[in-house]
Known about the structure:
Chain A is an alpha+beta fold. Helices cover 24% and strands 36% of the residues of chain A. In chain A, the strands form 4 sheets. Chain A has a 6-stranded mixed beta sheet with strand order 6-7-8-3-9-10, sandwiched between helices.
Amino acid sequence: MSIDISNLTVTYGAEDVISGLSLAIPEGSFFTLLGPSGCGKTTLLRTIAGFVKASGGSIRFSGRDVTKLPPHRRDIGMVFQDYALFPDKTVFQNVAYGLHARGERGESVARKVGEALERVGLGHLGSRHPAALSGGQRQRVALARAMVIKPQVLLMDEPLSNLDAKLRIQIRETITELQREANITTVFVTHDQEEALSMSNLIGVMNRGAVEQLGTPQEIYARPRTGYVADFVGAANRLPVRLRPAKAPLVEASLGDVAILATDAMAAPAPEGLLILRPEDLKISAAPQEALQSMPATVRGRQYLGSKTSYRLDLGEALQVVAELHGPGHDGFAPGDRVSLGIDSALARVIAA
Amino acid sequence: MSADSIRSPWFWLTALALALLALFVLYPLLSIIGGSFSGEGPSGWAQLVSTSKYREAVLNTLILASSVTVICTLIGVPLAYVTARYSFRGKALIALLPLITLVIPEVIAAQTWLMMLGNNGLITKFLREFGIRLPSFYGWFGLITSMSFIYYTYVYIGTVAAIGKFDVQLEEAAQSLGTPPGRARMKVMLPVILPAILASALLVFTMTVGNFAISIILSHGLPLLSVSTYQAAVSEGTTSITMQSTLASVSVLIVMSVLFLNRWIVSRGRYEIVQGRGARPVPLEGLRGLMVAAPAGLVVAISLLPLVTIALGAFTKARGPVMQWGSWTFENLERVFVTAPGPLLNSLLYAGIATFISIAFSAVVSYLVVKKPNVLTTWVDYISAVPLALSGTVLGVGLLAAFNGGWLPLTGTSAIIVMAYVVRRMPFGMRNAQATLHNIPNSIEEASISLGSPPVRTFFRVVLPIMLPAVASATILTWTTTVAELSASILVYSGGRETLPIQIFRLIDSGLMAYASAYGLVLVAVILIPVILANRLFGIDVFSSK
């Protein structure tokens, strides 16, 4: 089941929350809507589910227009942020609920529910009530309940945000495995970039009701097209630069009185741009390194983070960047040290300002 | 409004609810206001100003309400403070307080006070033997005493809740800044809990203004608003309703202005306690414990007195109005169950139907207001709160004015008694159901819908089962207050349709205290048995929703 959204507009009161959004989600993909709170990602998900009415445009599931269809007839499975388990029903009854709503009875219900619970590792807890489950177990019940009806589309609204860090990583794997096995087209909403990068095969980064960039996790991370995407997915130093042409695919970027060569990622040539430098792509050394372009810098602050150390560097003229060092001796510099900052022109990208 | 919302079943359900509320709440209210300007001769308002009896009734009611409010606050707040902050022997007994107010109908409370302190009361006669003459219990003394010992529990409950929510760390912060403990409490806690105290005090004020049962039994010649309204309704009948409507309007105006004052206080005093750590009660032992426990115990004992009195009275022989204390009989109870069981059966029937209607209406309408808001739900919400401003007497007058003849002649039927019960108690059911629904996240319903269950079926399959425990406790609470209802039903009932409270009132009026006690004991049992059963069988704590 593919999902085609064209020219979708959603209005709350007098305000357009989403205006003229178009998006194609291919069949069987794990599609993530990534963005900060208030960007419209949950509204878009709820519009796909049918809980929010579109005021313009259309939503099609494999060509069939569902824009006017009420949610209970869209054949969706939905996993909610707070799980929304029915508190008065047992785990078994929760999972069986959707099958009963579809008129299924008796033996086949028991078998399907049993399989679904087994699949998420809760086969032995069918008779419990949700209140007697841990957060991770509730999450699994919610997942089983949404999957057991074999929906055309699986919708998930920040399903992992109420779990602790370790559990979150476990359940991420459960979700992606289940999704791949059943090959259900899935729309997953999150504000957590790590979740988005690790689980999806397609990500739409949302900003103010629009999809700012659509691409695979690798594209989104390595080749952000806007400063917003670069900053939201991973961390990025964003420096305004003046540009002069150089040998393609490079461009010369001037930062105050130093100039470096960087990869040109702009749609059209312009006199000014934004230089994107990922902290982990920057190198710090006591003396300039041969293979890299170097510029002098002073260490202003540092945070020791165990596996890495994050340094705040002055490049002069109120220009600061953050660089991260990994590997042995990553905490070897101290505030006040004069160092050389090394930049690889293949990893430094210039985008439109 | 979009065309979608008009097409939904929820919209039409809301419209139906609004129509019912308009018919049974707004129409009676408007009939009262209209009635005060109707009739031949001078308007009701002109008579109100020119007749000294009516002027006195208004003035006396305000004086009575103010005194009762002050005394209730003086009893309720200290009692709440010591139970919230200290532990001492017998404290568990004080936790019974809300139960006591609930199970003792006002008419019985008034009756038992008379049996103790009336002209032929036990205590009066006992003291007379020692040459001590108490002032007559009829009039100010009796009214203020008996009302205060019932209504202080509202102040107590409101204040205990407020102190429970208070964050002790604020007090500790004040102490850390150099304020001694006692002053810290006064300066930090008092301002935070003051709005709650004022709100419960104003509730007492409005309840005193609307009080009928105690007023009519104990006022004896002292003009009071509710009694005058009742008497005007009885003497005017339903052909000319000028004076009863005018007096009822005055009561509505007084209660409305107090409710607005209350809203204003609550809106000003909304202090958010961000994080809370409740206080751990400090144990009081020895003499200090006794000094707290003794007065607290005395208050509780006096509150319990009516129960003991009617239990004794129900089995005591009587010749006419003269109680023969010490000689026992089953004759009084035989009358309740065998000779004249009508009031018991009527009460069970009317209150049962009214409770069912009231709870079903509250559940559905609250669902519309909380979960399916549309243009009409705001009005439904407002109008369903209007009965809070109508005392029972006012409502009775209104129902008589609205449904006497015309296209919907309900006067003289059982339906009008049921209607009076439903309208009086429905706002409490609404408040309870709305609070419950606010605690059910929307995602629960959406989960059901996303699994393929249509919205209406989702309500019955998912929402209603979750609401059920709260609905059950609201049902019992509604039952207990409906069975005890007197002030509206006594105006609208007709011969043969007497309920237990009406019968008790009539027996007290004739001075037949032994029979009244027997009916009273049965009434208390009818109230108490469902409360106990619910608690024992289903673990429902009726007071958790309070």
